[in-house]
Amino acid sequence: MDSVFEELYEKYHDDIFNFLFYMVRNREQAEDLVQEVYIKVLRSYKRFKGESSEKTWLLSIARHVAIDFFRKQKSWRRRVSEKFDWNDDQLCDMQPLPEEIAIQKEEIQRMYRCLERCTIDQQLVIVLRFIQSLSIAETAETLGWTESKVKTTQHRALKVLKKYMEEEAAKGGKQHEKISVE
């Protein structure tokens, strides 16, 4: 079991840590949750039947650990890491200007605030699909959903997130106008 555990750890530790960090947005808490995941892995590995990939199985365990954490905290609000790139379609200069960095950080922070307003299911799908780069099939397997439910949730999540982002941008513009007038 030691060699199997070490192999799982080597292959998937970063994926599990990143997933949990994106969910809780706190390094120390994510590290604690990763330990909980591995405790559950050690206890349940004998029951793993190989019906899914190891990565999907581990991320599914991590998902349950994260949900348990939020239930204990009585808070379903979470954030996604700054690695979520809304400007995927634009070419980026390898060395962006400080003004560009500041604008990007503001947009990412706005996205964090908006993502917190989404449902937990929407947040899970966004993190798994766009941060963890899982396919629809892998996401469905990880969440224990049908592919159809993943597609529907993803569609709704992106639609709602876009709406929230537009609302935030409009609020920001109005606040900027108030400051300029005064």
UniProtKB/TrEMBL annotation:
Q: Example GO molecular function term?
A: DNA binding
Domain RNA polymerase sigma factor 70 region 4 type intervals: 109-159
Spell out the InterPro entries in the cross-references: RNA_pol_sigma-70-like, RNA_pol_sigma-70_dom, RNA_pol_sigma70_ECF_CS, RNA_pol_sigma70_r2, RNA_pol_sigma70_r4_t2, RNA_pol_sigma_r2, RNA_pol_sigma_r3/r4-like, WH-like_DNA-bd_sf
Q: Name one GO biological process term.
A: DNA-templated transcription initiation
Residue stretches making up the RNA polymerase sigma-70 region domain: 8-74
Q: Does the keyword Transcription apply?
A: yes
Q: Does the keyword Transcription regulation apply?
A: yes
Alphabetized, the UniProt keywords read: DNA-binding, Sigma factor, Transcription, Transcription regulation
| Listed name of the protein | RNA polymerase sigma factor
What species was this sequence derived from?
Parageobacillus galactosidasius
